[in-house]
Amino acid sequence: MRHVHTLIQGVILGVLTSGVFALMASGQTLIFGIMKVVNLAQGAMVILGAYLSYQLFTSFGLDPFLAIPVTTVIMFVLGVAVQWLFLRPLRKDDRSELSLLITFAVALLIEGVMSITWHTTSRSINTGYANSSWSLFGYQITLVRLWAFLLSLAVLGLLYLLLNHTRFGRAVRATVQNPESAKLLGIEADRVSALGFGLGAATAAAAGSVYGLLYPFNPGSHYDLISKLLSIVILGGLGSVGGAVLGALIASTSSAVVAATVSPAWSEMTFFVILIAILLVRPQGIFGTTVRSA
Amino acid sequence: MNRLRAAGPVAFFATLASLPSFNLAHWSINLLIFTLMFAVMSSSWNLVGGFAGYPSLGHAAFFGIGAYAEAIWFSHHSVSSGYEPFLMLPAIGLLAALIGLPIGAVAMRTRADVFAIVTITLLFVVQMFAFNLHSITGGAQGLSIAPAPFPAATYERPFYYVLVGLLALAMAITFAVMRSKVGLSLAALRGDEDKARGIGIRVTGVKLLAFTVSVGLTAMVGAVWAYYEGFIYPQFAVDPLITIAMVLMTFLGGRATLWGPVLGAFILESAQQYLAYRLGGSQVYLIAYALVFLLIMLLLPRGILPTVQDRIRRRRRRQAVDSGSPTRTQPANAAATAGGGQA
Q: Which residues pair with residue B144 across a beta bridge?
């Protein structure tokens, strides 16, 4: 009976945590869908978002949840700038290879800037409600995790509306489906790419504010994050936002279950085991379309 | 012509071999050792990332495997003459190649971006093993190897010569690849893997061969590094920055060329050491490194050697046209493409 209890507690924790990962991963997969760029700086952008919201909290006492509108706007601008400065100049034939390296360099740049601004010690955002929790049928539900989950769902909902019910969203979806035809229909690829990268960065910022509440972070945390994010987006299928959400749910829940039943030290391994399994069985991911030509 | 071609490498390796006899200061031979390490690693990365066109971001995992294999072996066996750890190198290279075989077989089912992602996660998996398997790897405390009993004045020399040997090996392998059917197959699959498979090239075998040889060489450098440093920690033995250095050096010098990765290593490693020295290893160094990185990618996406060669070739053609003589047609067969970047 105790085992079942630990297991269910693990599932609850995993599901609640999946929201924030879904948010990060949806930004990553969106960027890939639009530009065919794997953004290795997504993790660094999340951590930068966490630091921005930490700064707003310590300097102005602004609650991280309320800080989200501010941080997303800042990171949106940053994302557009990164796309405009570093990714737009790349030639088409070697874009996917070079963009990997460029976004890695951007990640290092962000890491360096964060280390100078906030030093390398671990930070965490301690709000008054960070440790309060409810007890439901004997299961602990941490309040902050519940809020984080609901908030992530809300942001994902907004993203869904943006993609499915606006002109910009239509342009994005057209570009994801067929860049050539989209261009022929008069969609400006550069503009969609810039806005899309900005949007990806903005979701990273929102996720960062939430992440900062849940976990301590330091400038080097992004390595850990990016490896998890990449596993999630491949699991879901690169370019599919729905896949990213489902991938986050699967990966985060199984990792939390492993942490609860086996050992926290091996919980991260779950992400990679899932990754290897999916590559062996279905390399294009759950919602991925057929393998793209190399 | 062939004799002239051979003169370059002979002069290069003769210079390298004679350098220590100039009684260089410890810091400069230390710099050379690190440069050589990266020259070997970029050359071996080039086999996969350059010739096969599979941008691996996980090579540091094999560097770490080599380093740990060396350290684990010598925490159970004693070092007496100081040369035993070097004698272990072939075994370590073989071990890493064996580990790399199934990994490559799974990872190379994917292409380009996804391959890069899979290999970068591999890096974190190996790092996690290094942290978590306390009883074998010592966890976060790391492992140490007894220092070699070499005389202090010439302590670095054995390491230096071993690395020169490894560089010669890596470059000889690269040269052999460029001159052989393997090189042609790699060039074909880099261009279009499905078509290459269609015309009967054994794609899987060839790319796995490139991958295993490449990671074996990388692991051998890792082993030398562990012995040279004397102690290893998970975050330094399996460091994403090591992967990135290999990639960046190869890109700077020129992918799929013989000398490109070596040139890239000599330029970037000295620049890196200089920046680290001037900026005191602080975080400013990280920013400077990232900026250099971005500039190279944006200004020289094809690398130094291909760009220079292109320019020379174009000038020659123009001169030929100006002097009114008929232009010599470029040999457009596949051998020229495979060996396209000989410099």
A: B231
- Looking at residue A123, the DSSP 8-state letter turns out to be B
Facing A98 at nearest CB: one of B114, B289, B301: B301
Which residues in chain A are contacts of B301 at CB distance < 8 A? 90-91, 94, 98
For the stretch B54-110, pLDDT in tens is 989 899 999 999 999 999 988 888 777 888 889 889 999 999 999 999 999 988 887
> Domain for residue B4, yes or no?
no
- B147 vs B334, more confident: B147
Half-sphere exposure of B150 (CA within 13 A, CB side): 17
> What does the alpha-carbon distance between residue A146 and residue A134 come to, in Å, rounded to a whole number?
10
Residue of A nearest to B114 (CA): A234
Min distance A112 CA to chain B CA atoms (Å): 5
Gap from B86 CA to chain A (nearest CA, Å): 33
Tell me the C-alpha distance between B219 and B64, whole Å: 7
Q: What type of residue is A236?
A: G
Rounded to an integer, the average pLDDT of A225-248 is 87
Q: Which of A222, A172, A210 is nearest to A42 (CA)?
A: A222
Comparing CB atoms, the residue among A100, A115, A293 nearest residue B116 is: A100
Three-state DSSP state, B226: helix
Q: Taking a contact as any Cβ pair under 8 Å apart, which residues of chain A between 193 and 212 contact chain B?
A: none
* Residue from A230, A240, A267 whose CB has the most chain B CBs within 10 Å, to mutate: A230
Classify residue B16: in a domain, yes or no: no
Note the ipTM here: 0.79
- Beta carbons of B283 and A227 less than 8 Å apart: no
Is residue B247 one of the residues assigned to a domain? yes
Q: What is the pTM assigned to this prediction? A: 0.85
- Averaged pLDDT for residues B27-37: 91
Cα-only R_g, chain B: 21
d(CA A190, CA A198): 12
- CATH number (domain holding residue B122): 1.10.3470
Q: How many domains does chain B contain in total?
A: 1
Q: For B140-195, what is each residue's pLDDT tens digit?
A: 888 888 888 888 888 888 999 999 999 999 999 999 999 999 988 998 888 888 88
Q: What confidence tier does B338 reach under pLDDT thresholds 50, 70, 90?
A: very low
Name the nearest CA neighbour of B119 among B244, B3, B262, B285.
B244
Sequence spans of domains, chain A: 2-119+139-227
**CB within 8 Å: B251 and A272:** no
Q: Is residue B322 part of a domain?
A: yes
List all residues 6 or more positions away from B177 whose beta carbon is below 8 Å from its beta carbon.
B47, B51, B183, B186, B210
* Residue contact A279–B118, C-beta within 8 A: yes
